C-alpha cells in the first residue's frame, strides 16, 4: 500500500538487485523514501529495480560495488550523500548463501561468505554512521537467516556469518541508542525466491515446515523492514524478528 511515512528519508539497500533486496527497495520507495540500489556486479538487475521505483514516482540511484570492499562501500555512502544529501536508513541485505560440507570447505570459501555477509555489514555501518547520527532518527536493519537459529548441515560458513549478524545487531543497538539509531534484525525463513539456473533450494529448507502451509514471499519480509523504518517503530531496537510462517519460534 502506497504511503508517505518515509517521505524525505533516504535509504541504502545492499544486494537490492533481486529477490528480498529488490522487494525491500521497492517497499521503502513505496513508502516515500529515496533509495540507493546496491548490487555487487549485475547492473542490469539494479537498473531494473531503479526503473520500477521511478515508475511509481520515486527516486532511485544505482551503485555497483562489493560490500566486502571498504573503499567501495565508502564510495557508495558518498554517492548517496552527493545525490540525496542524507542517509536515514541502512539495510544490510547483501549476502552469499552457499552449501558445502565442512570437511571439504577451504578457508577461501569460508572467508568469502563472512567477508560479504558479516564484514560487509560492518563496512556499510561504519561508512553510513555519521549520516545516520545526523538523521536524528536513523535506522539500521540487518537481514538474518533462519539457519543461524536452527543450524544447518553443509552451511557452517553461512550459519556462522548470519549468527554474527544477530550479535552485531544486539551490540550496535547498545552502542548507537544514544545517537537515536535503532538497530534490528529481520530473519527470513522459507521464502520462495527465484534461483539461478542449476541452483537447487537449500537442503535445510526441506527439513522445516510452516504453520501456514505456505512459503513466504519477498514482500512479506519487505513489509516488516518497511515498518521498522517508520516512526511507529522507534521503540523497537536490538530485536530479531522472524518472518517464517511459524517454521521456527524463537528470539
Description:
The chain has 251 residues and is an alpha/beta fold. It has one domain (10-243): Rossmann fold. 42% of the residues lie in helices and 14% in strands. It contains 7 helices and 7 strands; from the N terminus they run βαβαβαβαβααβαβ. It has helices spanning 19-30, 43-55, 70-84, 107-135, 147-150, 156-176, 218-228, and strands spanning 10-13, 34-39, 60-64, 89-92, 139-143, 182-188, 240-243. A 7-stranded parallel β-sheet has the order 3-2-1-4-5-6-7, with helices on both faces. Strand 6, helix 7 (218-228) and strand 7 (240-243) form a beta-alpha-beta unit. Helix 3 (70-84) runs parallel beside helix 4 (107-135). The longest helix has 29 residues, at 107-135. The two termini are 28 Å apart. The relative contact order is 0.15.
Arithmetic mean pLDDT:
93
Overall structural class, as computed from helix and strand content, comes to alpha/beta
Quote the beta fraction.
5-15%
- Helix count, DSSP H or I runs of 4 or more residues: 7
Amino acid at each position: 500500500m502506497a504511503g508517505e511515512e518515509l517521505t524525505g528519508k533516504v535509504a541504502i539497500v545492499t544486494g537490492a538487485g533481486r529477490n528480498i533486496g529488490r522487494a525491500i527497495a521497492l517497499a521503502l520507495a513505496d513508502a516515500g523514501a529515496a533509495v540507493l540500489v546496491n548490487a555487487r556486479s549485475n547492473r542490469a538487475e539494479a537498473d531494473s529495480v531503479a526503473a520500477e521505483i521511478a515508475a511509481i514516482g520515486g527516486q532511485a540511484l544505482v551503485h555497483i560495488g562489493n560490500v566486502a570492499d571498504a573503499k567501495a562501500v565508502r564510495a557508495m555512502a558518498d554517492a548517496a550523500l552527493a545525490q540525496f544529501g542524507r542517509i536515514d536508513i541502512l539495510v544490510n541485505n547483501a549476502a552469499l548463501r552457499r552449501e558445502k560440507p565442512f570437511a571439504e570447505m577451504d578457508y577461501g570459501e569460508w572467508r568469502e561468505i563472512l567477508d560479504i555477509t558479516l564484514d560487509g555489514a560492518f563496512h556499510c555501518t561504519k561508512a553510513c554512521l555519521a549520516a545516520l547520527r545526523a538523521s536524528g532518527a536513523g535506522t539500521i536493519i540487518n537481514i538474518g537467516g533462519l539457519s543461524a537459529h536452527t543450524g544447518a548441515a553443509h552451511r557452517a560458513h553461512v550459519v556462522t556469518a548470519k549468527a554474527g549478524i544477530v550479535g552485531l545487531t544486539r551490540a550496535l543497538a547498545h552502542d548507537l541508542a544514544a545517537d537515536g539509531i535503532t538497530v534490528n534484525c529481520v530473519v527470513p525463513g522459507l521464502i520462495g525466491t527465484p534461483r539461478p539456473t542449476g541452483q537447487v533450494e537449500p537442503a535445510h529448507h526441506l527439513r522445516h515446515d510452516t504453520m501456514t502451509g505456505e512459503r513466504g514471499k519477498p514482500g512479506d519480509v519487505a513489509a516488516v523492514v518497511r515498518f521498522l523504518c517508520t516512526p511507529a517503530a522507534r521503540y523497537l531496537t536490538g530485536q530479531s524478528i522472524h518472518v517464517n510462517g511459524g517454521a521456527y519460534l524463537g528470539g
